[in-house]
Amino acid sequence: MKKFYGTDTYVQSAGVMNDLDIDGFSIAVCKEIGVELARHRTRSFDEMAEWGDDLSSFDLVVSLSPASQRRALELTRVFHLDVVYWPVMDPTGLGETRAAKLDAYRQTRDQIISHLQERWGPPRV
User: Fold this and answer.
1) How far, in Å, CA of 11 to CA of 33, rounded?
2) Average pLDDT, stretch 7-26?
3) Which helix (H) or strand (E) element contains residue 19?
4) H or E segment to which residue 36 belongs
5) In the chain, how many domains are there?
6) Is 16 a member of any domain?
7) How many Cα neighbours within 13 Å face the side chain of 41?
8) pLDDT reported for residue 23
9) What crossing angle do the helices spanning 98-120 and 24-31 adopt, rounded to 10°?
10) What global pTM score does this model have?
11) In a domain, 62, yes or no
12) Domain of 101?
């Protein structure tokens, strides 16, 4: 989001769980398009709240998995904000070789980019 549309919009990433490091394949395919993930860490919706990010201050939650969609709807049922689900392929566990794994992660990255552009148009930066 920040790469394509700048930093005028506050964007935060969270998931259902935080027990995993950022996947090395995700880091590699995002680096190919100039997005740095190596310093990022995963965080859960609960950690977001603990760190001061109040869900009621957001306008939109984008879910990328059925589990995160359920959790987002559960957490936001008392707030007036949109929750949308963007079905994307889960690349974890796909591919036998490094090249095949990277291809699967690229497909997922590109699906996310397509969803971004469908919602907000062509990149502005």
Assistant:
1) 19
2) 77
3) none
4) none
5) 1
6) yes
7) 6
8) 83
9) 60
10) 0.85
11) yes
12) 2-120
